Amino acid sequence: MNITITKTSDSKLDSIDFDNIPLGRAFTDHMFICDYADGKWQNPRVTPLELIPTHPAAMALHYGQAIFEGMKSTLSRKREPLLFRPAENASRLNASARRMGMPEFPEDLFVEGLKALVAVEQGWIPPADGSALYLRPFMYADEPFIGMRAATSFKFIIIASPAGPFFSKPVKLWAEKNYIRAAAGGTGEAKAAGNYAAAIRPTEIAKSKGFDQVLWLDANEHTYIQEVGTMNIFFKINGQFITPNLDGSVLHGITRKSVIDLLKHKGYTVTERPITIQEIAEAAQNGNLEEAFGTGTAVGIAYIQEIGWGDDTIKVSETYPVGEAINDSLNAIKTGLEEDVFGWMMPATTKEFV
Ligand SMILES: Cc1ncc(COP(=O)(O)O)c(C=O)c1O
Question: pLDDT tier at 280 (50, 70, 90 boundaries)?
């Protein structure tokens, strides 16, 4: 499918101060958009970013057929825009689409759409170390209909937002015993908008108690660790790493997958298995819990300082040597400073779109 490109004559690029980017509030001049109607995706295009008229009965607003992805484009040393494992996001979007009864989006068009948008918005990638252009592909049901069934018309859109340098600071987690994020057979594995809606209130409660994020536990016993806010989680106990296995209730994080490879490459043993919060509390008490960190696109690696669990506080660590080394490696690979031995990076643009 040919992507048509219409450029704005009214760029806002000059108005953005790259030293002071309002996180999540600055948007580039264009978006990629594609419509699903009559059983097929059609009319892929890059257009000036604009409001989209929405019918009040649009099904996404009522029944929540809405999914999304999150990824970043970084600049290489030669100032060429790069994408990190975009095919993984394309495939995860389609896994989410299948779970939510939505049409799959052609994975090559997903990557081509990203490239076309990044090519047009190259000037928006902040140059400072640790900065990136955040890319948000998403799909929602725009058919106006009142009634419970899969919609028949959808939009797939990619918007972009410059993100300033992010410095990971240690975080405190609240192990949540009352609310849950996901149960087996539910939608936890999908990047469905509703999962995030359900997490807002518990996160507010955790913050009101002085914590940064919720540590989600399993739905049946409130015992098995699942993941954190918008991150997967790793623990280092007695020199070895463990992370919860993908049991159907945990998002298949692309950073998680990459960190497993990086840790193994650095000689560590990584085991994916069920992990109880009791086991982590005991390891901390016995002095065997050496490090813990979250992994996700937004922050890279977030070092975990402590975990509040009822009246107990599980003290994790004050130093994060392996977490920092992994964070440095990830950032260096993303900017071409470290050899991309895994073949994760892809040029974000092709001449055809510039
Ligand atoms: C619930 C949840 N878990 C984990 C992650 C980390 O996934 P990734 O590493 O692909 O960003 C995210 C972010 O997308 C998330 O929203």
Answer: very high
